[in-house]
Structure to design on (464 residues):
C-alpha cells in the first residue's frame, strides 16, 4: 500500500494548556533539529546539530528578530530512526504556562514548521513502521484509561499482544493460500497434494481463535469505555448512599426526605479495576412535582440504555406499587437486585422478586453498615468478564473497528468451509481465504486504505 508522503516538519504543544511545572513542545521531521537551532541557544553555545542523540541540553529560547528571551528550556534530542516517529525529533521542555508554550510554538511556525494535525506524531510512527495500527490506537486508549484494568488492556495492545494473535492467524492463512495458488498455477510441478479435510480442520481452528477474540469484545469495550450502570429504585431506598459507598465519598446528597435526587447524577468510579459510568437516578414514583417528574422519566430512559442496572429495594418495608413497577422495568435487562437495609428487620417479599427476576442475582447490603458491598463488587466483575480469561487483558478486542473486521474475517472463513464442503473449485476457496487475510490485515494496518487511516487518527489529540 502506498501512502502520501509528508516530509515537512511538524510541531505542536504536547501537554495540556494551563499552569504547571513544565510544558512540552514536540517537533518532528527532517529539519526539526536545524529549525529548533534557529531559536535555541545552549548554555555552552554548542548547536543541537553538533550533538549526538539522546541528549538533554539546557539553554534559552529567544526570538531571533527581537533578541527577546522567551524562556529557559531543556531540549531533548532524538535522531532518526530511534525516536517516537522514526524521524528527527526535538522535545522542548519549558515552564508550563500558556504564554511560553504558545510563543515558542509560534516561533517554530514562523521558521517553517507546520502545526501538527490531531494524532499526526503517532500517525507518522505508524506510517514509518515503528508500530502497527492496533498499537497506534492503543496510544489514545492509554491516555484515556480510567482504571488499572483499562490501562492493562491498552498497554497490552501497545506491547503487541493483540497484534501478535492477529499475525499468527494471518500467517496460517497465507500458508494455505500459497499452497492452493501453487497447485492452481503450476499443476505440472510436483506440488504436494492438498488434503481439503485437513484444510477444513485448520480453518476451524482459526475460526475458534477468531470467535474467542470476538467473545472478548464486550469486556474489552467496557474496560475501555466504562460500564454504563444505572442505580434505580423508589425514593429513599438508598440509591445515593450506594453511589457514595462505591465512590468512597459523599458525592450525592443523602437525606430522609423522599425525592431528594430530582435529576440524574453521573460519575466515573473505579470498582476494583473496572470503570463504571454510574448513574444515580431520581426515585421512580408517581409525583405531581414537574421537576421530579422529568427526573423520573429520565430514570426510565437510563434503564433502557444501561449495560447494567442495580435495582435497589428497601428490605425493611413491604412491597409497594413502585417496587412492582421497577421489577417490570428491569425484568428483561441485565440487572442485579440489591436489597438494602439488611441491618434492619426484613419485611420485603423476596420470593416475589425471585419469581419475577429469575435471571437476576439478589444481593443483600447495608449502606449504613457497609455490608455486602464487596459481594456486589464481585458480582459486577463477574458480569463484566463473563468467563473471559483475565490473565492478559491485552488480548481483548477493545473497539468496534477491530470487532467488525474480526466478524467479517470469520464470515469469510465460514464461506471457505462451505465451499470446500460442497467441492467448489479451489480458486474460489482462495478468494475467501484471501478476503479473511485482508480483513485481519485491516486491524493491524497492513491492508487498510488511507481514508480509514485518516479517520482513525483524526480522533487523536493534537500533540500526540
Amino acid at each position: 500500500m502506498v501512502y502520501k508522503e509528508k516530509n515537512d516538519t511538524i510541531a505542536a504543544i504536547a501537554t495540556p494548556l494551563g499552569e504547571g511545572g513544565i510544558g512540552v513542545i514536540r517537533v518532528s521531521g527532517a529539519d526539526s533539529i536545524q529549525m529548533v537551532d534557529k531559536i535555541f541557544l545552549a548554555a555552552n553555545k554548542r548547536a543541537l546539530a553538533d550533538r549526538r542523540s539522546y541528549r538533554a541540553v539546557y539553554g534559552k529560547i529567544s526570538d531571533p528578530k527581537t533578541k527577546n528571551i522567551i524562556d529557559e528550556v531543556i531540549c531533548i534530542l532524538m535522531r532518526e530512526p530511534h525516536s517516537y516517529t522514526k524521524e528527527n525529533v526535538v522535545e522542548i521542555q519549558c515552564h508550563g504556562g500558556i504564554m511560553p508554550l504558545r510563543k515558542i510554538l509560534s516561533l517554530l511556525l514562523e521558521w517553517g514548521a507546520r502545526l501538527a494535525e490531531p494524532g499526526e506524531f503517532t500517525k507518522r510512527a505508524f506510517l514509518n513502521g515503528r508500530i502497527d495500527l492496533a498499537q497506534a490506537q492503543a496510544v489514545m486508549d492509554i491516555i484515556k484509561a480510567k482504571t488499572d484494568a483499562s490501562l492493562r488492556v491498552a498497554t497490552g495492545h501497545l506491547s503487541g499482544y493483540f497484534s501478535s494473535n492477529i499475525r499468527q492467524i494471518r500467517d496460517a492463512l497465507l500458508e494455505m493460500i500459497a499452497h492452493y495458488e501453487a497447485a492452481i498455477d503450476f499443476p505440472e510441478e510436483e506440488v504436494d497434494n492438498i488434503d481439503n479435510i485437513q484444510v477444513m480442520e485448520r480453518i476451524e481452528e482459526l475460526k475458534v481463535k477468531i470467535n474467542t477474540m470476538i467473545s472478548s469484545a464486550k469486556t474489552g469495550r467496557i474496560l475501555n469505555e466504562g460500564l454504563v450502570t444505572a442505580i434505580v429504585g423508589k425514593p429513599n431506598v438508598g440509591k445515593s448512599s450506594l453511589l457514595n459507598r462505591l465512590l468512597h465519598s459523599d458525592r450525592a446528597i443523602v437525606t430522609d426526605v423522599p425525592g431528594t435526587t430530582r435529576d440524574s447524577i453521573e460519575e466515573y468510579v473505579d470498582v476494583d479495576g473496572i470503570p463504571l459510568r454510574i448513574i444515580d437516578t431520581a426515585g421512580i414514583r408517581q409525583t405531581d412535582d414537574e421537576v421530579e417528574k422529568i427526573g423520573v422519566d429520565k430514570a426510565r430512559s437510563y434503564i433502557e440504555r444501561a449495560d447494567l442496572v442495580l435495582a435497589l429495594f428497601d428490605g425493611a418495608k413491604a412491597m409497594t406499587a413502585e417496587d412492582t413497577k421497577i421489577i417490570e422495568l428491569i425484568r428483561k435487562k441485565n440487572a442485579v437486585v440489591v436489597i438494602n437495609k439488611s441491618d434492619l428487620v426484613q419485611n420485603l417479599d423476596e420470593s416475589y422478586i425471585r419469581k419475577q427476576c429469575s435471571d437476576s442475582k439478589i444481593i443483600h447490603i447495608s449502606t449504613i453498615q457497609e455490608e455486602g458491598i464487596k459481594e456486589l463488587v464481585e458480582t459486577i466483575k463477574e458480569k463484566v468478564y463473563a468467563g473471559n480469561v483475565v490473565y492478559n487483558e491485552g488480548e481483548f478486542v477493545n473497539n468496534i473497528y477491530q470487532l467488525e473486521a474480526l466478524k467479517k474475517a470469520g464470515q469469510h472463513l465460514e464461506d471457505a468451509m462451505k465451499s470446500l464442503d460442497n467441492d467448489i473449485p479451489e480458486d474460489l476457496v482462495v478468494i475467501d481465504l484471501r478476503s479473511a487475510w485482508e480483513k485481519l490485515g485491516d486491524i493491524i494496518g497492513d491492508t487498510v486504505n488511507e481514508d480509514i487511516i485518516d479517520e482513525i487518527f483524526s480522533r487523536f489529540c493534537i500533540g500526540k
About this structure: The radius of gyration is 29 Å. The chain has a mean pLDDT of 86. The longest strand covers residues 69-78. Residues 7 and 29 are 7 Å apart (CA to CA).
